[in-house]
Amino acid sequence: MTDNLVQPRAAAISRYRARIPVPATSSTVFLLLFYVVLLGILSAASPRFHDYQNAISIVSQASVLGIAAVGQTFAIISGGFDISVGGVVPLSAVAFAELSNAGLPMPAALINTLAIGAAVGAVNAVLTMVIRLNPFIATLGTYSVTTGLALALADGQTVAMQHFSAAVLGNQFGNQIPYSAVLFVGIAIVAVITLRSTIFGRSMYALGGNRDTARLAGIRIGLIGTGAYMLCSTLAALAGVVSASQLAAGSPTTGSDLALTSIAAVIVGGAALTGGVGGVPGTVLGVLIIGTVSNGFALLAVPSFYQQVATGVILILAITVNQLRSRTRRRPSLRGAVIKQERSDG
After folding, report:
1. Which structural domains are found in the chain, ordered by start?
2. Cα angle value 253/256/260 (rounded, 5°)
3. pTM (predicted TM-score)
4. Which residues of the chain form beta strands (DSSP E)?
5. How far apart are CA 193 and CA 289, in angstroms?
6. Contact by Cβ (8 Å): 224, 77
7. Per DSSP, what are the bridge partners of residue 172?
8. Are 67 and 238 within 8 A, CB to CB?
9. pLDDT digits (tens, 9 = 90+) for 275-319
10. Which of 143, 144, 186, 282 is most buried, with most CB under 10 Å away?
């Protein structure tokens, strides 16, 4: 009797997981058009903007934000977000520089640094998935801890890398394409495949969409949530390694603003802070938009603090458009439900 009940339930769970929708980021095409217009405006404003070397500079600088933002995409889609990214990046940059200076080969230093990021992600998962703290409070706490650890490990100073061979991720292919840009593109492609074509990725959408429904469907929400936070922090650690490699030094303050900018890139890309909506292509466009605006402002000699104002404005506009789009999507379904109820009453 038990087997007769378990088998249909397992089959139902399997069918549900196979039908978990991957929400389409309808704003991707709009973002692409907006980005093309932005490129045209900045090219007209500054003759140096469309220079090939400047394009390489944009991609190279955006790769650190991009790697961290891809990780943030996993956290936001699954229904959370990770402020501790702003502490993991500088902590990882300093740790990687210290480990390489201690004589560890680059692969060993990289693996140990990524392990630090994964550990922070595991702590975030315990705080949010087990203890059930609000993600803002939990990750704000770990942000404070990791920021303090970065300053303590570096003794408040920038740690110069003594072995330049360890900073391989800061190099370029034939002085043309940065390794970091290739790494960013590769991670983005793997992330797209993971979210769209694996049960793990599709379950993140289900978890972010409705946790209770996902639980009743047999999805192991603790495992999925833990994986999302660990991926986010691990990629933030990798972003820290890339930053240290580009600068040939680990700074305890580098990337401290990535908590805001990574979330901004994901939201600009069409994700919803409530979870269950978003995608890596939109995040990549969000990263490029933010990086291009920053680069354009620098070429136009606009003070750096106005760049922060611009990032904030972009984030507010993105959230506003996202909310309006969500309300528009809900109205037809609500109207349909009312008509259906009226018909049943009649």
Report:
1. 30-327 (1.10.3470)
2. 170
3. 0.85
4. 159-160, 172-173, 177-178, 249-250
5. 23
6. no
7. 178
8. yes
9. 888 899 999 999 998 889 888 888 888 887 787 787 778 767 766
10. 282
